[in-house]
Amino acid sequence: MAQITLDNLAHSYLANPSDEGDYALKELNHTWRDGEAYALLGPSGCGKSTLLNIISGLLIPSHGRVLFGDTDVTRLPTAERNIAQVFQFPVVYDTMTVRENLAFPLKNRGMDGAEIARRVGRVAKMIDVEAVLDRKARGLTADAKQKISLGRGMVREDVNALLFDEPLTVIDPHMKWELRTQLKKLHADFGHTMIYVTHDQTEALTFADKVVVMFDGRVVQIGTPEELFQTPEHTFVGYFIGSPGMNVLPARIEGRTAHLDAGSVPLGAGYGALSGKVEIGVRPEFVSLSSTEGLPVEIVRVEDVGRHKIIRAKLSGKALNIIADEGTEIGADMTRVTFDPDHVNVYADDWRVAPSGAHATGEAA
Prior knowledge:
This is ABC transporter ATP-binding protein. 23% of the residues lie in helices and 33% in strands. It has helices at residues 48-56, 98-107, 113-126, 142-154, 173-190, 201-207, 225-230, 235-240, and strands spanning 4-11, 25-32, 37-41, 63-68, 71-72, 83-86, 161-165, 194-198, 210-215, 218-223, 247-250, 252-260, 263-271, 278-282, 287-290, 295-296, 298-304, 308-315, 318-325, 336-339, 344-348, 351-352. The strands form six sheets. The protein has a six-stranded mixed sheet with strand order 6-7-8-3-9-10, with helices on both faces. A four-stranded antiparallel sheet has the order 2-1-4-5, covered by helices on one side. Strands 11-14-21-22 form a four-stranded antiparallel sheet.
């Protein structure tokens, strides 16, 4: 297991990049703690697979270094980094049995047969392939083959890191939940450093100790699920995390008041003078309908999703989402909204601004 340090790291697929826009991975400096589980979360093309491939040794960065502990591994081949990597699509040996596939990385290291049998048995039970251990992998379904790929990564207990590149894409929804649970148990039992790439926020938030949110080749926030929800450090984080995502509205800030086109709303803290594109962000969970106070809104429709209701509204012509409890009655006279002041974040040029005298709670790039 190893602490992973990304030092001045950046990468361009162009031979002679001339500006920041030419970089698929923009410069970043981070230290990821030994033994923690991280998820790289973001949309397609944001740079998460590029970063994972640099960590694994499949790609040498344009500049900067990768360190495992105190060892510079930037130019070491994958085989010398002592990692296990599971890819999006299953990689198995069709002519081998499931048992032989799971044992393969251990046999390559000359491990004792009894220990191999113990580890293979434990992992086979974990991924629910005990019944097919002696079947050839060739005839198995895609999701069964991916379970074997996962098992081969999990069978090794001495690796510096376990890397997963969207490993549950071909797995059925019920099995996804089961395998995420098992991966978390593996992490709890053995304390491997784990890095899990996904574009699915549910996978990221349920798997990881810390979620690394990426946007346009940049790490915009590293935080716990609670930090990403409560204090998104970038408007993209607010938009990408949550369903629906955070409401973002243009505003002018004066001290403890935000002035919007529709009127003014109180803030839970004071702010100094701001320049650039200034906005407030408030999650739908912290917006409330009222018949007597707040800003005037137009209700477009109400969606009952079982656990709660999503009210789609417009505030000065701009979309506004509101979440209400399942049993809440939406009366015809409820045409105003209020925001919980303590849960309104302020942004300048898309980055969260800390209140006067306070510090941002998240870890931004």
